[in-house]
Amino acid sequence: MSTACWDRCIYHRGRHTEPFLRAYLGESHRHMLLLAGAGFDPRSTSVAELVARHAGTRARGFFFREERPRPAPALVGRADSHERKLRKLLPSSTVVRVDIFAPDNAVVGGRAAVGLVNALPLDDLTDIIVDLSALSIGVAFPIVRHLYGTASKRGLNLHLVVADEPGTDAGINATASDVADTVHGFKGGWGLDAQSRAARLWMPQLARGKRAVLERIHKRVEPHAVCPILPFPAAHPRLPDELIEEYGEEFENTWQVDSRDIVYASERGPLDLYRTILRMDDTRQRVFEQIGGSQIILSPVGSKALAVGALMAALDRDFTIMYVEALSYTVDLAKLDEARAARPGDLVHVWLHGEAYGITGSKDVAGS
Questions:
Q1: Alpha carbon 134 to chain centroid distance?
Q2: What are the structural domain ranges in the chain?
Q3: Phi, psi of 348 (to 5 degrees)
Q4: Cβ pair 167, 364 in contact under 8 A
Q5: Sheet harboring 320-330: ordered strands across?
Q6: The CATH fold of domain 174-327
Q7: What is the CATH number of domain 10-169+344-357?
C-alpha cells in the first residue's frame, strides 16, 4: 500500500477557519503572496478581505482576470468592480489578464497562468496562499501544481483556501467547449504506452446541469468502469437523490453503474474524497497488477471543496484530470447575490505544504 502525502493534514472549515487564519496571518514574521481570481464570481474578494485585515502590508496579491470570447457586459462590469476592490484591499498587488482560449479555440489558459506565476519574485516570502474560490479548474489546478513544486524546493508554506458555496457553484451556468482534454500539468499516464493495457476507472464528480460535459468526457476517456462521486452529506439533503435521478439514464445504460459503484464523499470538505480515492487506488493496484495495471481519471465538475479533494489526490498519485473548459458563463447576478445572503457558505483552508509537516528542504514532486 502506498503512503498518503496528507494522511495527517492541517485542515480547517467553517467557524474554525477564520480564528486560525486570524492568528496565523497576524504573525509579524510572515510575508505572503495571495493568488486569486478577479472575475465576476461573488466570492472574488472574500479571502482578500481576510488577508488584508490581518496581514496588512505584509501581503501582496497576484490576481487573474480570465478572458473568454464575447463575455456578457454585466459579468464584465461585476469583474471590474471586484478588480477595483482587490486593488484597494492590497495596494501592492498586480492584476493580469489570461486568455483561456487561443484564436483557434485551443485551451491555453492553464499554461499561460503557470508562465506568469513562474516569473514572480518569491525570495522575501514565507507563505503562498491560493484562493480557488473564483478561479476555474483549468487555471487553478495548474497554478497549484506549479506552486507545490516551488514550495517544496524553497521550503515555503503553501495554503489552499476556498469559499465553499455549492449554491453559488450551481448558479453559475457554463457554456462548455466541444473538446474534453487533460488539465495542464495533470496528464498523468494518459496516452502513454505503459498505460495502454491499464484498466481505466473514471471518477466524475456529479453536479446539476453537467450531463453534456460529462458525456463529452466519457466519450474521450472510454473507461472500463465508472464510479460517480456524489456529495453526501450535502448542504441540500436531497441533492444525492436528485443527482441519481438526473443521471439515471447514464447510470443504467451508458455508464452501467449500480449502487455499489457510487462514491459518497462529504460535500463539507476535501479530505474525505481525497482519502477515498487513494484507498480505491491502493485496492485497484493490487487487483490489476498482473494484467496491465490500473489508471484512475478524475473529472471534478461540481462544488469547489470536493474539487480540492480531487486535486490533492491527483497531486499525491499523479492521476489524470480530464476536463471541459467553459467558453462562456450565464449568471443571474441578482439571484446569486440573494441566495448567498440567505445561505452564506463556509471558508475551507488546507495547509498543503510547509513547516506544519516539518518540511523545509527540497522534495521531488511528480509532474512539477
A1: 10
A2: 10-169+344-357, 174-327
A3: -115, 135
A4: no
A5: 173-182, 320-330, 294-299, 199-204, 225-226
A6: Rossmann fold (3.40.50)
A7: 3.40.50
Same CATH fold assignment for domains 10-169+344-357 and 174-327: yes
pLDDT at residue 235, as a whole number: 84
Cell 487564519 sits at which residue? 21
Strands 173-182 and 320-330: antiparallel
Answering whether pTM is above 0.70, one says: yes
Residue 214: what residue type? Answer: L
Query: What per-residue string of b and e applies to 130-157 under the rule 16 or more CB within 10 Å gives b?
Result: bbbbbbbbbbbbbbbbbbbbbbbeeebb
pLDDT tens digits, residue range 305-353? 999 999 999 999 999 999 999 999 999 998 888 888 877 789 999 999 9
In this structure, what C-alpha cell is assigned to residue 313? 489526490
The confidence band for 359, taking pLDDT boundaries of 50, 70 and 90, is: low
DSSP string, 15-52: GGHHHHHHHHHT-TT--EEEEEE-SS-TTTTHHHHHHH
Cα separations in angstroms, 311 against 141, 156, 161, 317, 362: 7, 19, 13, 10, 21
Q: What is the mean pLDDT of residues 241-247?
A: 96
